Predict the structure.
Amino acid sequence: AQKITQTQPGMFVQEKEVVTLDCTYDTSDPSYGLFWYKQPSSGEMIFLIYQGSYDQQNATEGRYSLNFQKARKSANLVISASQLGDSAMYFCAIHGGGADGLTFGKGTHLIIQP
Amino acid sequence: GAGVSQSPSNKVTEKGKDVELRCDPISGHTALYWYRQSLGQGLEFLIYFQGNSAPDKSGLPSDRFSAERTGGSVSTLTIQRTQQEDSAVYLCASSPSGVPYNEQFFGPGTRLTVL
C-alpha cells in the first residue's frame, strides 16, 4: 500500500516569494516515482514535475524544483518567484511498480497574493 | 496535438439510472487510467488498462462500476444503478506506455451529479 501526506490544507503567500509545499510518502515498493500536479479552478490536472526514487539529483522544471529526501520519505515542491497564476490546488502523488495508478495526497490550496 | 478528451463534460442523472462515461486517450498512448475526485474522498484511482489486457478491477468502488477498453483506445466507464455517493468528477488519464513512471496526461473530466 502507498500513502501520500500533505499537511498544509491551505497556504497564503505573497507574490514573488518562494513557496514550499510539503509532501511525505510511505511505500513498500523498492522503486517508485513521485509526481506533482497542479489543478487550477478550471479543474484540469497539469503535470509539473517528476522524481524517480533512484534519481541522484533533485528534479527541476523551470520555476519548479523537487526537494527529494529519500531517507525522510519527503518530496517537497519548491516554486521560485511565485506568480498570481500559481494560485491553485497542488497534489503530490506516488506511483509504484505495480499495475495500478497514482496515489494522491489530499492537496494544498495555494493562494498567491499581490 | 489533441489531448485526452472525455464526454460528456457534465452529466446529471436520477438515482438508480445507469450512466456511461467515455474517454478518448491521446493517440498512441497504450496506458489508460480512470480516477474519481470528490470532496469527501479526494482523488481515487479506479482502474488501469494497458493496451487490451484485462484490467485489475480491485480499485473499483463497487460491483456497480465496470469499465472496458475497445481496440486499445477508447474506454467507457459504466456505473449501474447510480447512487448519490457516486456524484464526483471522473477523470481519465493516458500515458505512452505501461511503465509506471511516465507522466499521465489528464482529460478535463466528467462531472457526474446524481439527484
The two ends of chain A are 41 Å apart (CA to CA). The CA atoms of residues 16 and 81 of chain A lie 4 Å apart. The first strand of chain A starts at residue 3 and ends at 5.
